[in-house]
């Protein structure tokens, strides 16, 4: 993950211990190359297209905090994707400027209250830092010293999807067999109890 200075100014160090593959693209497919990054406008970005209409929390989620976190995450993805190469400070500065602009952020606190603005700036920087760590863990970006480079979203092929569907169907079949076996055992227990009593 990131090591060095965190958004709050203190030292931060985090390491990843996971080595197992999680996504279908980890199963032998080549990793996206650094040269595959293409500069696209944020409104038409791959991130926006792939996550279009995605509601990470469902209809019953509170609308203020999680939606803002998700929106910040998407904004970080779009910024890094559009730039190709950037730094944490560059992304954070631009997003702080965007989110603190009173014309863009309707829910912003009183512009005269500097302590609230300072808190919002720290909060945005913290979210940018967290989003970059998540993107790094997902191998969507890579980091060399202070430079962040967009590597690309994982590719999902039709073979991967079919393989996952087959795996899901196999697991459902195993669950059905285990449920039938459990029912058989419960019937046997009932029979034994009826004989004993």
Number of strands: 5
Judging by the overall fold, what is the CATH architecture of the largest domain?
Orthogonal Bundle
User: Taking all residues together, what is the mean pLDDT?
Assistant: 71
How far do the termini sit from each other?
63 Å
**CATH topology of the largest domain, which one?**
Arc Repressor Mutant, subunit A
From the alpha carbons, calculate the radius of gyration and give it in angstroms: 24 Å
Order of helices and strands, N to C?
EEHHEHHEEH
The strand line-up of the biggest sheet is: 3-5-4
General shape? elongated
Which structural class is indicated by helix and strand composition? mainly alpha
Oligomer: single chain
SS field, number of helical segments: 5
**For this structure, what is the CATH homologous superfamily of the largest domain?**
Winged helix-like DNA-binding domain superfamily/Winged helix DNA-binding domain
Determine the fraction of residues in helical runs and give it as a percent range: 40-55%
What proportion strand? Answer: 5-15%
Organism: Zea mays (Maize)
Coiled coil: 161-188
Subcellular location: Cytoplasm; Nucleus
Protein name: Transcription factor-like protein DPB
């Amino acid at each position: 993950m990131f090591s060095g200075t965190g958004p709050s100014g203190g030292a931060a160090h985090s390491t990843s211990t996971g080595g197992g593959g999680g996504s279908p693209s980890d199963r032998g497919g080549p990793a996206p190359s650094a040269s595959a990054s293409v500069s696209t406008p944020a409104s038409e970005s791959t991130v926006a297209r792939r996550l279009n209409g995605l509601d990470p929390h469902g209809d019953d989620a509170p609308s203020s905090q999680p939606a803002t976190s998700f929106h910040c995450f998407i904004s970080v993805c779009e910024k890094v994707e559009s730039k190709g190469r950037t730094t944490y400070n560059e992304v954070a500065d631009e997003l702080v400027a965007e989110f603190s602009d009173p014309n863009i952020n309707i829910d912003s606190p009183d512009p005269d209250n500097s302590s609230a603005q300072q808190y919002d700036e720290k909060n945005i920087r913290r979210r940018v830092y967290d989003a970059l760590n998540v993107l790094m863990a997902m191998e969507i970006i890579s980091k060399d010293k202070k430079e962040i480079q967009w590597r690309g979203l994982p590719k999902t092929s039709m073979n991967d999807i079919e393989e996952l569907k087959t795996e899901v169907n196999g697991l459902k079949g195993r669950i059905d067999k285990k449920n039938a076996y459990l029912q058989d055992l419960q019937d046997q227990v009932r029979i034994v109890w009826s004989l004993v009593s």
